[in-house]
Design goal:
The complex is a heterodimer.
Chain A lengths: L1 H34 L21 H8 L1 H34 L5 H13 L6 H10 L6 H25 L3 H9 L4 H12 L1 H17 L2 H6 L8 H4 L11 H30 L6
Helix pairs in contact in A: 1-12, 2-12, 3-6, 3-9, 4-6, 6-9, 6-12, 7-8, 9-12
Chain B lengths: L1 H11 L1 E3 L5 E4 L3 H8 L3 H31 L5 H13 L2 H12 L6 H7 L16 H25 L4 H9 L4 H30 L2 H6 L11 H11 L5 H25 L8
Antiparallel strand pairs in B: 1-2
Classes of the chains: A mainly alpha, B mainly alpha.
């Protein structure tokens, strides 16, 4: 009797799981289906879920749209530059705090933790003043610096954990063999903590890619808007191209979901800063 | 990070013209003016409801979700991937999506609920004062669930199998085991999830900004969107006043951070 009951339980769980997966995906399914509707079908009453005339060319049309290409370019520049900056700054900081005890180390790690809890949202008025006075409104520099600063904490935390887990003996052995500090870091430590490095980099990229409020505030020039801000201009009080908005959103969302799935395992540990194992 | 915070405090003590030019030091006057703003009481109440309801509902649903994801069943990977989507997707795009779904004339929600027999007449979800907050909170819960479930799942996986075996040997029922074994052992993860969510939800901007876009005034704003409107959008365009509210917001988050660090008993990690 036990075996069939277990099989039934498994089936039940799989059923509930499927329903749940559907519940989470349903809104994005509406997004996908609306993205495939022709303009005229957006305003039919009562509304239909699926398009009558499937117009997948909407996706291509958005990709060929000059405005979209500009936003995409801005998003890529900002996200890749912030990612690079985060990695370059986080590796030495994380390595040093993982290997050395120094005065102010606790204070430093504490400060890092606190920055992680602040989003730029609460500081946006101050940020705007800062960049206004530095005359950096509408510059990539402002957006890249802000994104990098606010995502540094996660990178330092996750890399520190990886570095600390590498036995000192390996590094000592390499030093005996005549490796300098930098060579030890590049040849031994970094390859061994590759998953951490990839996670930190992807996380920084996605955070900058999805950032909205700082970009909305600092980038008012139409040629300098990233995707998050730019796509909203497909639907305003005057024009309502919901199909274009959602086609653009699909293009923006799919890659980051794939990237996110890759680092899923390490995320919770990094975001809760070691308080949940 | 420290610099914009300092600029924020300085701005809160200064006066600016509508075009953002510095007009001098005014001391604490912006704070006094903040207290006189008519909308302030409504906005604070909205913020309390917004944070409290989202965090409470999210935690309750996430407890069940984490419990499910902790079990092995065919297709579990699929559920985990589905859960990632609202987390990874840009919040502003998700918010726009819900504006469309909620739409009175062309949104899919009204006909769906009518065909299920839940609603007799279509509802203007985002235009009606009585439904807009609930509609926004539902989206808030939707996007908060993935992170919370993952934190609780991580907590569940730290509970050793033998305590469950011991409970079974003692003849405890499933519900009793959950209440007396699982929940107490899950406490640290629950606290972490609760405090981090309070901070995230308080700071949340795109949902209220987008879904409440059509409604004039500050009737459904939280302290974050209210601050933003004062600084950049409303007729006020008052950087000093917004900065004063910003300082209050930052102070509230700091309190939450301190509570967080005390609950997880933060210590210097071992090197």
């Amino acid at each position: 009797m036990i075996a069939p009951r277990r099989a039934l339980g498994q089936l039940g769980l799989a059923g509930v799981g499927t329903l749940l997966a559907l519940a989470f995906l349903a809104p994005y399914l509406v997004m996908l289906l609306t993205a495939a509707k022709p303009e005229a079908e957006l305003r039919v009453s009562p509304p239909r879920l699926t398009p009558l005339d499937w117009q997948w060319s909407n996706l291509l049309a958005v990709l060929l749209d000059g405005d979209f290409q500009t936003w995409l370019r801005v998003s890529l520049i900002v996200a890749i530059a912030s990612m690079a900056l985060v990695v370059v700054a986080a590796v030495p900081a994380a390595y040093y705090t993982a290997r050395h005890r120094f005065r102010g180390r606790t204070a430093f790690l504490f400060l890092v933790l606190v920055t992680q809890m602040f989003s730029p949202t609460s500081l946006v008025v101050g940020l705007h003043r800062e960049f206004f006075e530095l005359d950096l409104i509408n510059t990539y520099t402002a957006l890249i610096l802000t994104n990098a600063a606010f995502n540094l904490a996660f990178a330092i935390w996750i890399l520190r954990a990886f570095f600390a887990s590498i036995p000192r003996e390996i590094e000592e052995a390499a030093a005996v063999d005549g490796c300098g500090r930098v060579r030890v870091l590049c040849r031994i430590v970094l390859p061994l903590s590759l998953p951490g490095l990839v996670t930190a980099a992807i996380f920084a990229f996605i955070a900058a890619w999805n950032e909205y409020i700082v970009a909305l505030t600092l980038m008012t020039d139409p040629d300098k808007k990233p995707l998050t801000v730019g796509v909203t201009s497909y639907v305003t009080a005057y024009v309502q191209h919901w199909n274009s908005l959602f086609a653009a959103s699909i293009i923006a969302i799919v890659p980051v979901v794939v990237l996110f799935a890759l680092i899923e395992r390490y995320l919770v540990g990094g975001l809760t800063a070691g308080s949940v194992k | 990070m420290v610099y914009p915070a300092a600029r924020l405090v300085q701005a809160s003590l200064s006066q600016y013209s509508v075009t953002g030019l510095y007009q001098g030091w005014v001391g604490p006057r912006n704070y006094a003016r903040l207290l006189q703003q008519e909308a302030l009481a409504t906005v604070v109440m909205n913020t309390v409801v917004w944070v409290a309801v989202i965090v409470a509902v999210t935690l309750l649903i996430s407890l069940a979700l984490a419990q499910l994801l902790d079990k092995r069943f065919p297709g579990r990977r699929l559920v985990r991937w589905a859960l990632i989507v609202p987390w990874a997707a840009s919040l502003i795009m998700t918010s726009k999506l819900f504006v469309w779904i909620y739409d009175y004339y062309f949104g899919i929600l009204n006909p769906l609920l009518q065909s299920l027999g839940v609603l007799a007449h279509p509802v203007d979800w985002l235009g009606d004062d009585s439904t807009v907050m609930g509609a926004m909170i539902a989206v808030g819960v939707f996007v908060s669930l993935p992170f919370t479930s993952y934190v609780l799942l991580a907590g569940l996986q730290t509970i050793p199998v033998d305590v469950y075996e011991a409970a079974r040997v003692d003849g405890a029922s499933a519900w009793r085991t959950y209440r007396s074994v699982t929940l107490p052992l899950l406490r640290p993860a629950l606290l972490v999830a609760a405090v981090l969510n309070i901070i995230y939800v308080f700071n949340s901007f795109p949902i209220v900004w987008t879904l409440n876009d059509r409604n004039p005034g500050f009737g459904h704003d939280t302290m974050i969107t209210y601050m933003y409107k004062i600084a950049f959008k409303s007729s006020l365009r008052d950087v000093g006043l917004a900065a004063a509210l910003g300082v209050v917001n930052v102070a509230l988050i700091l309190v939450a951070v301190v509570v967080y660090l005390r609950t997880v008993r933060w210590q210097e990690p071992e090197a």
